[in-house]
Amino acid sequence: VIPSFAIERAQDIIYELNKYYTKYIKTEDQDFLSVPVYVDSPLTVSATEIFLRNPDCFDEDTLKLIKIGNNPLDFRNLKFTRSVEESKQINFSKESKVIISASGMCTAGRIKHHLKHNLWRKESSIVFVGYQANGTLGRRIKEGEKVVKIFGEEIRINAKICSLEGFSGHADREGIIRWIKSFKNRPKKIFVVHGEEEATEEISRKIEEELKIKTHIPELRETLSIEGEIVLPGGRLEIDRRSKELREIEENIEKVKSIFLPTFQRLGYRTDGGADSKELNNIKNKLIEIQKIY
Hints:
single chain, about 290 residues, alpha/beta, Rossmann fold, 3 domains, four-stranded parallel beta sheet, globular, MBL
């Protein structure tokens, strides 16, 4: 199971898998070719279709592959799934398979269903190919938590957890420094965001020492008002002491989802425009269950 960002990262993975499939076609090891690769994310499927409709935007190496008949975003046993039923069938099948699904940090989308069905299996592997932000389900899995809660159900992690670190879409520290140096008019102050605490502190220090530009690392929930050349500090919400409370709220939300989602899905599949009395009574019972949670 590969949690992946729907745009660009998923296409990068398909591109790399295509190269492996092309390689194995020329060898005696044909077992690899029989393993299906499922791209199970409607947004990923739509984004990939846009890539395929605009080959003129590809780089020269990719265009060369296309000219010799090798579509870099298509290969044997690559399967795109859109519908809910197609997605469900992936987990019902007992064959070996590769599943690429979103969201990349496992916070939403079909990937949560695939994790629910595979995290507990010793023969499964979860392969991370992108950054996992602090507090996300992906981060908790990557950092080695033994049990996680998905849709209100506790799932024990028995699968092998792997990370491929070479797919970052961001510039590294030296690349950012070169970019700032290229400015004709240097900024008077730089806000360092979107990074781990240690990394942001390191690049902040380097910018100040090497480029002599003031920096500021905003804290979570901090607000800043920029007026001309003056930066006015705003307020910051203290949340460290509330982290446990926030986690409990998150878990309760997951419980609500697990209680109501199956019922709403059944109602959503109806075509007669209404729900029968049995379904309505079921909803009432679910409301009673929610009251018990709180």
